[in-house]
Amino acid sequence: MKNTIVIVTILLMSSMIFGQNEFEPGIIQLKNGQEKKGLIQFLNETNTNKVFYKESVNSELTQFTPNQINSYKLDNVNKKVISEKLGLKAIFMEVIIEGKANLLLYKDENRDNRYFLKSEKSGLKELDIITRNEGDLQKGQFQLKRYVGILNFEFNDCTEMNGKTNQIRLTLSSLSKAFTTYNNCVSEVSFTSERLNRTDYHTIFIEAGINFTSIREKGDRVRGKDFDNSFSPTVGLTYVYTPTIFNSRTSLSTGISYNSVNSETAYFRNNDVLIGNYRTTKINPKTINIKLGIHYNLNKSKRKLNPSLGIFYINSRLLNKDSAYLRIDNEGVEEYLYEDFEIPISSASSGFAIEFSTSYAVTSKNNILIKLGYERIGDFLDYFGASYATNTFYVKTGYSFDL
Questions:
Q1: Beta strand extents in 87-200 (DSSP E only)
Q2: Residue 66 — very low, low, confident or very high, per pLDDT cuts 50/70/90?
């Protein structure tokens, strides 16, 4: 139990460290004409009225508001934010599509998405739907797609958009497609936000590593105490699915691995009845483990270095029933550990795992990773008088392929 607490504490501390990695290198254009290069807050969605900046990793944070900044842009992530006046208030708007006609996104105080057009032809205009009352109150209300008229005027110099503005929906996907088509028609798209490149990720990991396993005996009929620690190799295959509906932070994972334990201790008797001349207890289960669980990605979108925390349910299938639990006499003869009691062995057991992993993007579709974790799996004995659960700490490395 103490070992479990230690590793959980380590993983939580690691998550806190990596969870603060919300800064990316970039440049800020101030309203006084100065430029500031350094680290800029990437996950600026909880408060769109300010952004944090620091010159280096260990520098103090500086807070900037839309009244101080013209724009800021990140170097390694396609994110660009500009300052605009909405009424009397200066706000930050994120650039989604940039070209002759710019599509901008503003998250208001209610966390709702509001979309804006900015161009030389139209200036800054909100793309919205307004609700109006019919002349006769009994007729109720109707919705006017004001954004259709605005885009109809803006896109009138592109024959490719003729008659298509009525089909545009007030969503990020539909608007971005329309703005991309228009800009490529009359000029070109000069910038596209990383939001539009967020796709569902399907990843296969090939893994190998080392297990460090200890056995925790429990019960009033155990036949071994203080087992030797076991070191054994492990190999596996894992599939990870990351849907962007969760902003790429939550991944579903399933995997299969081969594990083995090889541990011995002195044969233990807790009564005066002698049943044979046994000297050694040997526990050597060889298993196929199937894992199902969730990864929580500590980066909000995929980057070069992507740490994550995971928790999993394990179904462990025993491959060697005849030799998994043995007692050995002083002549080296092996017998089933509880043969005299006719205790059956189950073919499956279950458990859980907690792990911290980090993947590094070698290319756009390939990653290398390292995993540190802890798993606990019950034994395969159908016997209430004794149990031999395994507690395993593991280190794994692997290589992945994005499908």
A1: 89-98, 101-107, 113-119, 123-127, 130-133, 141-144, 191-192
A2: very high
